[in-house]
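subagent[fold] <- orchestrator: predict structure for attached chain, return tokens only, no commentary.
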Amino acid sequence: MSLNINGIRIPDSQMAREATELVRDTESSLLFHHSSRVYYWAALAGQQRCLSVDQELLYIGCMFHDMGLTHEHCSCDKRFEVDGADTARNFMRQYGVSAQDIDKVWTAIALHTTPGIPQFMEPVIALVTAGVEMDVLGINYAAYDDKVREDVVAVHPRTPDFKEDIIQAFYDGIKNKPETTFGNVKADVIADKEPQFVKGNFCSVIRASRWKS
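subagent[fold] -> orchestrator:
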């Protein structure tokens, strides 16, 4: 089923079509539909912010952002974000995408779990993170009206227990390389000097998001 919201649709190009097929055949249904929703939230966020963005590059960034969680594209020693970014880079090279554009998508994927930085960067980079944050954490949830959310979820459904399912998917993709999860060093420094400091918890934020499931 083709979805068109405010003029936003999946780009009709060979690269986009083959990206859809590859991601659908490689990722679980959970991650495929998550990535597809991320594209719509990201593109709609671009409209909200009046940003001019290459929709095809944005689509590739959104669709490949979790490919590093899959067995086929998971390395033994790199962050899953880097694995996904490398996979996207190798894929785009087949279509003659410029090195500059490949770098944009690579950076967008590599930084999508690093809040506070992508929003100040080039639109493709900023919007991939915005889409992920909306779908996983419910950030900027109120900026999307009920009809828009319902239309996107109707075509790319969330599982009945999506919050727990996505946490499990993250865990399954990184559990064998815990050394790649070294986190925000600033929080570690504050916790070291201020014993009463309570670090933010990613899983708690997911569970508390405005999404029902």
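orchestrator: received. Logging for downstream: The two ends are 23 Å apart (CA to CA). The chain has a mean pLDDT of 95.
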